[in-house]
Amino acid sequence: MENKTDETKVLADALTPRQIVEELDKYIIGQFEAKRSVAIALRNRARRQMLEEDMQDEVAPKNIIMIGSTGVGKTEIARRLARLVDAPFIKVEASKYTEIGYVGRDVESMIRDLTEISVSRVKSEQAVAVEEKALEKAEERLLDNLFPMPRALKNPRNNTPNDDPEADEDIDENEDIDIDEDIIELPFDLDITEEQDEALEKQRERHLKTRDKLRQRLKNGEFEEKEVDISMKTRSMPFVEIFSPGGIEEMDINFKDMFSNILPNQTKKRRVPVSEARQILMQEEAEKLIDMDAVISDAIERVENSGIVFLDEIDKIAGRESRQGPDVSREGVQRDILPIIEGSTVATKYGSVRTHHVLFIAAGAFHVSNPSDLIPELQGRFPIRVELKSLNKSDFKCILTEPKNALVKQYTALLHTEGIEATITDDAIDEIAALAFQVNESVEDIGARRLHTIMEKLFENLFFDAPDLDEKSATIDADYVRGELVEIVKDQDLSRYIL
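The structure corresponding to this sequence follows.
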């Protein structure tokens, strides 16, 4: 009954398809069909976890092919989707796996890279979880550096107390003490009387009391600029190049760990400010506190159940109908990718990773080929196909103003750093959108990326002169846009200015 309650909670905590689309709308304009498809695929993952265990393995992820020209939002939809649910995500280009053995890569490397990303993410989360404890340990090490305990007080049985009653006196909180002053060592003596032992105990108490006050001053940031010497662990790893057809991971040898066990750890001293030393020591202490076995186990579980692979340029490995048959290397890449998408076990340096429930989102323009040009087995592994629409003038206007960090907001914020308050009028936005649409129609349709090139050209002079301007306000209207981009409008060779 408890398991069923936990499973129900998984679905209750997951976003509904409508909520996913609403979140994507904050960053991506239009393309409702594509957003709807990825939202359903994501929700089905949570639904699968509510099924019986034997059925969970049978439910395959609903992989998606997005069809659309560049700049319409294919990559952004996949990336925002992964960020929305904090899922391991990697973007790879299918074309880089061509001609394996010459310039390409082993197709299984995409899963290894995805696992590496997941391990790094889980490790970062664990570092945040132990941050408070790591900070405490780092500050204790800093105190040991700033105000070390005399050896006599650490091992009192081998020493006699200092007869000087003024030694290690209690300090005032506001007193500017010299922390680097020499610590008076106590003379060596095997015979310690009861009175001497009590005197040592009092000195130790005074030392600890002083240390507590210094700890508070350290927390208050009074020693941030003071330089200290810290010992850092360094590891000189030899460079070893190994040629293996299946990749170094398949050799089942972790050379990094192997050499770390053979070679001794080395330390080097650095003199750095306390502020920097605190960060270095915190990282070292966090490394000690993190349970790497738990990190790796969690990371692999996330890859297997939540991982998303965005396979871009899938059309570049599709065969063309105009040829006698598909190119050998391209069809070979499709056949290599097929078992990964079907579900296989990939050997990584962290262990075996199953790809049976990794979500694959493929994308391509398909200008000179069609999804049907892919081998039938691969087509069957992408049951959902979505065609993204080209952007029009209205879409460009929305992209300029509506997203959470819209382009207009970005450029005005950049000028604000120079103390310039810029105002972009509505007619200027209309003019920019119209020009972007015109250039896309006339030269080449690169989608929303056209807005970036036009905005850079529009603000070029203003960005250059901004630090030297006496007038700290600027109004950008339609006339200003036409004035800055008049050459683009006149010249037939628009690519000279834009591409």
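The domain at 2-128+299-387 is CATH 3.40.50.300 (Rossmann fold).
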